[in-house]
TrEMBL record:
Leader sequence segment: none
Organism of this sequence: Microbacterium dextranolyticum
Domain of life according to the entry: Bacteria
This protein's UniProt keywords: DNA-binding, Transcription, Transcription regulation
Upper classification of the organism: Bacteria, Bacillati, Actinomycetota, Actinomycetes, Micrococcales
Protein name in UniProt: LacI family transcriptional regulator
């Protein structure tokens, strides 16, 4: 209690008193200092639990000028890739004592991007992760004065200093090669929206591998990542002469499977399909989907 008899949150000194250690020792425990003996750490943590101690991050930020917060700028999407990336960043940040603050881009126009970026920077984030599948978002970011280190999870001709890259083209070539090695030559590609960096890279990988095998190529057919678009396109594809489809993601492949069954055909007996992303649901499609992780 304070001098007015009112309950107040426990402080570091309260924890130190309860654990029989100095407040410097409590601070070292909070910061996972390697010099602290395990039994001391356990005693301090037990005192923290008994007192319902909660670290005052705002006060700490004032003293250290650090907020231990990572900003995430992400384009609005229900797709597996961006959503799983946000979840993975949050998990990794928490494991290291950081929080994440997310700003979602409902539009890729410059004003929306600038507003979202300003919102994150106003929170004194220590770093920024950009998950923006469209190259135009990254172009706008390169024109901004960003005062913290930042990376993007997508490869593009317009890049910041640090990029985390998935070899989209290489993965697409592996998927296409898998079909070619099994004797398929009439292979269609169900591509994603071409304003998405991954979709364009996967399409290029497909075309490169087909040319490397001197296999006949047809123009990729554009979907929108959804199972519905895969189904609608699949209803047209089953009337063509083909033996296989490389789908740029697993959800469109699910729609293709639906259209194939509806036409009285079987996969892979009549038409083989390879997807991309290895979503958790892919193993539960019928038949289970061959897909690129």
């Amino acid at each position: 209690m304070n001098d007015d008899g009112q309950t107040r949150p426990a402080s570091i000194r309260d924890v130190a008193r309860a654990a029989g250690v100095s407040h410097q020792t409590v601070s070292r425990v909070l910061n996972d200092h390697p010099s602290i003996r395990p039994e001391t750490r356990d005693r301090v943590r037990a005192a923290m639990a008994d007192l319902s101690y909660s670290r005052n991050w705002a006060a700490r930020a004032l003293v250290t000028s650090r907020t231990r917060t990572i900003g995430i700028l992400v384009a609005a999407s229900r797709q597996y890739g961006p959503a799983s990336a946000v979840a993975g960043i949050g998990e990794a940040a928490r494991a290291r004592g950081y929080w994440v603050s997310t700003a979602t881009l409902e539009s890729s126009d410059p004003a929306s991007i600038t507003a979202a970026l300003s919102h994150l920077l106003a929170q004194s984030i220590e770093g920024l992760v950009v998950i923006a599948p469209q190259a135009r978002v990254l172009r706008v970011l390169t024109e901004q004065a960003i005062s913290v280190p930042y990376i993007t999870l997508h490869s593009t001709d317009v890049q910041p200093a640090q990029v985390v890259v998935v070899d989209q083209s290489g993965g697409a070539r592996l998927a296409t090669r898998h079909l070619l090695e099994r004797g398929h030559r009439m292979i269609y590609h169900l591509a994603g929206p071409q304003d998405w960096i991954e979709a364009e890279s996967r399409m290029h990988g497909f075309l490169e591998e087909m040319r490397a095998w001197d296999a006949p190529t047809t123009a990729p057919i554009l979907g929108d990542w959804t199972a519905r678009s895969g189904y609608e396109i699949g209803r047209r594809l089953v009337r063509r002469e083909l033996t296989a489809v490389f789908s740029a993601n697993d959800q469109m492949a699910l729609g293709l499977l639906h259209a194939i069954r509806e036409a009285g055909l079987e996969c892979p007996r009549d038409i083989s399909i390879v997807g991309f992303d290895d979503t958790p649901e892919a193993a539960h499609f019928w038949p289970p989907l061959t897909t690129v992780r």
